[in-house]
Specification:
By secondary structure, this protein is an all-alpha fold. It has four helices and no strands. The longest helix is centred in the first third of the chain and has 23 residues.
């Protein structure tokens, strides 16, 4: 009445499960954290924040075992947009650093979030149609 199943089930373990390399959860989190910090480094360098970029680069080098490539790839984005992007990247790095209990990276990410929050507040412009004066732009330390 029913034809028997002739193929292996997808739930059967593979014969050679050890043939390919596996990474631990810690290794995966290291890779993810290094990626978030490298992206933060690119935005930090674009903003011209040299000392902050050096601190981020140290953490990336610690996680990857080699210094990160640094370049001046400019996107011509507005500083407020770059600070918002950097804030989001630092937030992602903070979440991963907290999940892997990396205190140094978590502290750095939290400091960068605070710095970019302050910079966004200083460069915020009023909504269109309002008569409120725009705050004077603040020049960040190390910015070009």
């Amino acid at each position: 009445m029913y034809e028997p199943i002739r193929t292996k089930s997808v739930h059967t373990p593979a014969d050679h499960a050890d043939d390919f390399p596996h990474r631990s959860r810690e290794e995966e989190l290291d890779i993810q954290l290094a990626g978030h910090l490298a992206a933060l480094l690119a935005v930090t360098d674009e903003l011209g924040l040299g000392k902050a970029g050096d601190r981020v680069a140290e953490q990336v080098a610690r996680l990857r075992g080699a210094p990160p490539a640094r370049h001046a790839g400019l996107t011509d984005a507005a500083p407020h947009t770059l600070h918002r992007r950097a804030h989001a990247l630092a937030g992602r790095a903070l979440v991963v650093a907290a999940s892997r209990a990396d205190t140094a990276a978590a502290i750095l990410a939290a400091e960068r979030m605070d710095a970019h929050t302050a910079a966004m507040a200083a460069t915020t412009t009023p909504p269109p149609g309002t008569n409120a004066p725009a705050p004077a732009p603040v020049r960040l330390v190390g910015a070009l």
